[in-house]
Design brief:
Length: about 280
């Protein structure tokens, strides 16, 4: 078994007719035996959170051991930019425990992805009391909603900051495939936004739940009440399921759907290694 560092991992993989799942940024490490790639490691950047890099392991053979994972990382580490490093583990968690323990990675996020039948979703909220008075308006992406949604997003992503972005750029990001018919915004009696839930188009039978926010407990109850009405409307339109992607760093969405994800296993566990502050 040989572990080698490559200056252009994407080109090397292409020569082997292999394509990484994420855009590779420069150096990478190959673990191979008898000219067969058993595993490879590279890193990628998220254009919306550029201050942090993401380690990407691809394990193609069961012979890879935790010690091999550590050796691969140590081979790559000297080439990495000075940055916080995120390791996302989808499966075979035990394979990465040695790396996590020896290189100071700390768990900071669990991500849940569920496809929930709309009737089942409704039953989770059926006992909740109705909130206070809700000002009914057709959903519209206003300047106020853009501003508050950007601030809320930034507040729940302080560990991995959003890059500098204008409201116009933010609007382009969050309105891509936005379902204007089923998204929710709630105002108080003064016209101030107190809650919202953005829904996104998926297919003819399902919709995706995106960003959400509520100012306080009363606003949360109002959002629950309006969300239940939306679920009934979706059923009437022959939709069948709601798709959720919820993580533990987003307190608003996680608390809203906690009763649904509580008994589920995360599909992704994320760890971070922080650079020392100078």
């Amino acid at each position: 078994m040989e572990i080698t560092l490559h200056k252009d991992i994407a080109a090397h993989l292409q020569d082997k007719n292999m394509i990484p799942n994420y855009p590779a940024s420069g150096h990478g490490v190959i673990c191979e035996a008898e000219d067969e790639i058993l595993s490879y490691l590279y890193y990628s950047l998220n254009p919306y959170h550029p201050s942090t890099l993401y380690l990407r392991f691809a394990v193609l053979d069961k012979s890879i051991k935790p010690e091999t994972v550590v050796d691969m990382y140590e081979k790559l580490k000297s080439t990495l930019p000075l940055s916080d490093i995120i390791l996302e583990v989808h499966c075979r968690h035990g394979l990465y425990e040695k790396l996590i323990d020896e290189h100071g990675f700390e768990k900071f996020r669990e991500t849940y992805e569920l496809e929930v039948d709309i009737t089942e979703m409704f039953s989770h909220f059926d006992g909740d009391e109705a909130g206070g008075e809700v000002t009914e308006k057709n959903f519209e992406m206003t300047g106020e909603l853009l501003d508050i949604s950007k601030k809320v997003y930034e507040s729940v992503h302080q560990l991995i900051p959003l890059r500098e972005m204008s409201l116009a750029g933010w609007e382009g990001l969050i309105t891509d495939e936005l379902d204007f018919k089923n998204s929710i915004v709630i105002y108080d009696e003064t016209g101030k936004i107190t809650a919202y839930m953005l829904m996104y188009e998926n297919d003819e039978a399902s919709v995706d739940v995106g960003y959400c926010y509520y100012a306080d407990t009363e606003a949360k109850q109002s959002l629950i009440s309006t969300f239940k009405d939306t679920l009934l409307h979706l059923l009437e339109k022959d939709f069948e399921q709601i798709n959720l992607e919820v993580d533990t760093t987003d307190g608003y969405a996680y608390e809203f759907f906690k009763s649904i994800v509580a008994d589920e296993q995360p599909v992704l566990v994320s760890y971070i290694s922080r650079q020392p502050q100078v």
